[in-house]
Design a protein that fits this description.
Blueprint (H helix, E strand, L loop, with lengths): L9 H13 L10 E5 L5 E6 L30 H8 L8 E6 L3 H10 L3 E6 L6 H12 L3 E4 L19
Parallel strand pairs: 3-4, 4-5
Antiparallel strand pairs: 1-2, 1-3
Helix pairs in contact: 3-4
Length: 166
């Protein structure tokens, strides 16, 4: 018997982990996930976009429209920053896998944390001012930027344990 040849590459595997983390986000419009991986392909941390710890998902706004005080943008912590803040150890030299290219605010945190490489999937804001600024800072700081060739799609099915043997 020969080994399976259709396994995921490391990039596909870790991007899948970022997508799995994104499924924790309660944002009704945009779910972003991130995974921080060390040089030995070990998972260091994960994160997803959501409100800060202690801020109720039911009391803060999820709206995209409206003023600063009544839209989600003033309150949501992005997946990349959550992954950095949740890390149990320094992330210097690690690779960040993220489903959406980081904004300029996350770029600052990524640079300051010492992340060496970003592997991203979507760049839907390419060409916007925030995206241009983000890429400018990341490149100036020597962070390697790599867009994956394939889009990863996950399917998670929930079944009760009593159904698993059916």
């Amino acid at each position: 018997m020969t080994k399976r040849l259709d396994t995921l590459s490391w990039d596909e595997y870790f991007m899948g982990l970022a997508h799995l983390s994104a499924l924790r986000s309660k944002d009704p419009n945009t779910q972003v996930g991130a995974a921080i991986i060390d040089e030995n392909n070990r998972v260091v941390s994960v994160g997803y976009n959501g409100f800060p710890r202690g801020c109720s998902d039911d009391e803060f706004p999820w709206d995209r429209e409206g003023g600063f005080l009544i839209s989600k943008y003033a309150y949501v912590v992005h997946a990349e920053l959550n992954a950095i803040l949740n890390s149990p150890r320094p992330v210097r030299g690690c690779t960040l896998y993220v489903s959406l290219f980081p904004c300029n605010e996350c770029a600052k945190a990524i640079i300051q944390a010492g992340i060496a490489k970003i592997v991203y999937e979507s760049d839907k804001y390419d060409g916007t001012d925030a995206n241009i600024v983000s890429k400018r800072m990341l490149r100036a700081a020597g962070v390697e930027l790599v867009q994956v060739d394939n889009t990863i799609r996950l399917s998670v099915e929930r079944r009760t344990n009593s159904e698993k043997n059916k």
